[in-house]
Amino acid sequence: MAATGSAVGLGNIWKFPYVAGSNGGGAFVLVYLVCILLIGVPVMMAEVLIGRRGRQSPINSVRDVVLESGADSRWRHVGWVGVSAGMLILSFYAVIAGWALSYIFAMASGELAGVNGDSAAAVFAGLLADPVRLIFWQSLFMLLCVLVVVGGVKKGLGVAVEILMPLLFFMLLLLLGLSYFQGNFAAAWHFLFSFNIELLTWRGVLEAMGQAFFTLSIGMGAIMAYGAYMPQKVNIGKTILIVAFFDSLVAIVSGLIIFSIVFGTQGIEPSAGPGLMFISLPVAFANMSGGLLIGCAFFVLVSIAAWSSAISLLEPCVAWLIEAKDVGRTNANLLLAGFAWLLGIGSVLSFNVWSDIQLAGFTFFDFLDFLTTNIMLPLSGLLIALFVGYAVKPEFINLEMDDISPIMLKVWRVSLRYIAPVAISAVFVMGIYDKFFS
Q1: Counting Cβ atoms within 10 Å, is residue 406 exposed (0-12), middle (13-18) or buried (19+)?
Q2: How far is Cα 172 from Cα 247, in angstroms, rounded to an integer?
Q3: Which of 92, 182, 196, 384 has its CA 20 to 30 A from that of 335?
Q4: How far is the C-alpha of 61 from the C-alpha of 167, rounded, in Å?
């Protein structure tokens, strides 16, 4: 449940559905699922293997596995890349999650009652233009993360996922039922699952690879940290397949919910990103019977997904600070969450006061997003695949994977050594090309 909570985040709820519908529907979904099995699952298994072998924070787990494998000492930097990316992501992720929190109260208070496209856009623009409000919601979300992680593995993370994940799936099923009866479910189904192979380009295939990689929280240190807490008797392969299944299920069901609501409202076209979640959907909710209540439930769902992901980004760094510097868990949380919060102020201001300030052609928020998503995460995932595929001693791999059949173990190794590195490199090159040359 913890790993599923880490994997299920904001990208599942708004990014995957739109990308799938715009790239051939069912054809894209099929390619995405194949990529999950050939790229996402193998690399995720490698992360868990390192974590369970090292039984420490990602940084120290990688260091110890490097030492016991007699590998080149430069491999130890693999842990640092992932954990650093996770902290940078947390800084701006908390800002976006704060938007979702604010919309729970906007829906509940009736502020969004009867909005149209222009007024919904004005409400969202007003939120982004107000740094004080943004900092308040960012701070509240970060406080929620600290309250969970400060409790430790059992009393904090364990209790949180036992409550949050069942609640997330309950909210998901509730909203699916409401969208079926109140929205245009048939149009949403057609948008996501009509098998339009002619709409699936090679770029769409690369997007499916990228979505398969990013949706599972690979390369952030989170899955490696949770691997350190995984009992030795648990089958890594089966566990990760279950996580991948539920992660994909949330993405698909979210798509059905969102587009049932969008297509059920006249004059609204599906869009991607913040425009879909914070402008189009509030207009759709405003035109539904009981829409404000449904909208409130939707943004609770979004906030839970963001919360469960964010705590997994904070935990790896907290664990390292406790191990390496002998800092208490409470102080480690306050120090690291404070750093992420302070860095997040830059993202907050990039939407208003600093909107004209450019860093290598990006706003502060866009720069962090590009740096982590297009460079650090693919690099981290690539290094993990190569490290476990080539540098870790086979006997250690066999010990951790002794409950996996020899055939599946061979398939996993082939994917880790050859398929995943090529695919991740292609996603990396595409991300750089899109930003600077397209």
Answers
A1: exposed
A2: 12
A3: 384
A4: 32
What CA–CA distance (Å, rounded) separates 77 from 59? 8
Q: How far apart are CA 7 and CA 14, in angstroms?
A: 14
Can you spell out the DSSP letters for 228-243? TTS-TTS-HHHHHHHH
pLDDT value at residue 437? 77
**Angle of helix 236-263 relative to helix 159-182, nearest 10 degrees?**
30
- Domains parsed from the chain with CATH numbers: 2-436 (1.20.1740)
272-295 pLDDT, tens digit each:
667 788 888 898 898 888 889 999
HEC string of 300-324 equals HHHHHHHHHHHHHHHHHHHHHHHHH
Give me the pLDDT at residue 273, please: 67
**Cα–Cα distance, 347 to 362 (Å, whole number):** 11
Q: Is 139 exposed, middle or buried (0-12, 13-18, 19+ CB in 10 A)?
A: middle
The structure's pTM equals: 0.92
DSSP one-letter string for 331-367 = HHHHHHHHHHHHHHHHHHHTTTTTTT--BTTB-HHHH
- The DSSP output letter for 184 is -
Q: Are 414 and 37 in contact (CB under 8 A)?
A: no
Cα dihedral 204→383→306→20 (10° resolution): 10
Amino acid making up residue 15: K
Cα(212)–Cα(32) distance, integer angstroms:
6
Query: How far is Cα 41 from Cα 59, in angstroms, rounded to an integer?
Result: 21
Residue 359 pairs in a beta bridge with: 362
Coil/strand/helix, residue 392:
coil
pLDDT in tens, 149-182: 998 877 788 888 888 888 988 989 999 998 898 8
Alpha helices in 350-419 (DSSP H): 364-370, 377-386, 394-400, 406-414
pLDDT tens sequence across 345-368: 999 999 999 999 887 789 999 999
Q: What is the dihedral of CA 40, 370, 228, 141, to 10 degrees?
A: -120
Q: Give pLDDT < 50 ranges for the chain.
A: none
Q: Which ranges of 185-231 would DSSP assign to H, the alpha helix? A: 185-193, 202-214, 222-227
* pLDDT at 431 (0 to 100): 83
> CA Rg, the chain, in Å?
21
